Amino acid sequence: MRIRTIQAKSILTPQKRGFLTAGEQPYTHSLSWATGCQFGKLYCGAYCYAPMLPNWHFARREGEAWGDVLIIKANAAELLDEQLARARNRRGMRIFMSPVTDPYQPIERKLRLTRRCLEVFARYDDLDLLLIQTRGPVVADDLELIAALPYAWLGMTIETDRGDLPYGPARSHVERRLEAVKLAVARGINVQIAVSPCLPYSDLFAERLLETGAQRIVIDTFAIGDGSRGRRTAQSPFAAVADYDWRDDSIAESLYHQLDIHHDGVAWSGAGFAGIPGRRRLV
Ligand code: SF4
């Protein structure tokens, strides 16, 4: 993968519409310190919607495909500090990190850009929410920092517990993510698991999710979650290799009902993602 570094002009992007605002507790901003994603050539890159968004098309060079290049905003932490310092309504800020890249992709171990952003957040104790959304077990390196932020939630994507799907995650990666969630919960961090998009799963999946102790579990589907009733997914490389009917929402609905009997923090699709109560509404 090629790495390009830029000096960005802004790091917090206001959210006015779209999936981050689809629920009763919408996000006000997103934070992505890169354009592109190191996981882009892995299984999830085959159905990722980020390469269909304008910012990728404007940032990439001709011939560059999703997963070929990572364009890093090297001044992300400094910009974040500036933007938080001058924010007029910091108490109302609800930040989603990150919708178009992964804050704990492997290169984070070298760059520590997410860590530097967390160190900036640590200087401000009055935000409403920071959701750190990842598939990367590398997040376990930063649990101490996350635990110290009174408004932080960890969002961990776990689409399935099966490691034998040709279009799904490796078994070892699933296990490491489940373990990272358990470690986070043990540290007192609020965790929202995102089964997004829900892939075929084993009979034990619901039990394994419940065992983690996560406060919330959001289930999403390709047909609902891609924001176009499946049109985006149908154009993705995933649709060509999937050996089951990915438009069939009943697979996800069944998991939802299995979990909902035992857990009062189970939520559905966009309304679920944008449904984390603000910290002032929790007390
Ligand atoms: S981790 Fe997220 S942003 Fe990165 S390729 Fe996978 S789905 Fe896309």
How many domains, in number, for the residues? Answer: 1
What are the secondary-structure elements, in order, as H or E? EEEEHEHEHHEHEHEHEHHHHEHH
Radius of gyration: 18 Å
* CATH architecture assignment name: Alpha-Beta Horseshoe
CATH class: Alpha Beta
Stretches with pLDDT under 50, minimum 5 residues: none
- End-to-end separation in angstroms reads 45 Å
| Helix fraction by DSSP (H/I, runs of at least 4) | 25-40%
Going by helix content, strand content and strand pairing, the class is alpha/beta
Number of helices: 13
Beta-sheet strand percentage?
15-25%
Largest sheet: 8 strands, mixed
Give the cofactors and ligands.
iron/sulfur cluster
| CATH fold-level name | pyruvate-formate lyase- activating enzyme
How many extended strands? 11
Q: What would the average pLDDT be, to the nearest integer?
A: 94
Quick gist of this model?
The chain has 283 residues and is of the alpha/beta class.
List key phrases describing it.
binds iron/sulfur cluster; three-stranded mixed beta sheet; 11 strands; eight-stranded mixed beta sheet; alpha/beta; 17% strand; single chain; pyruvate-formate lyase- activating enzyme; 283 residues
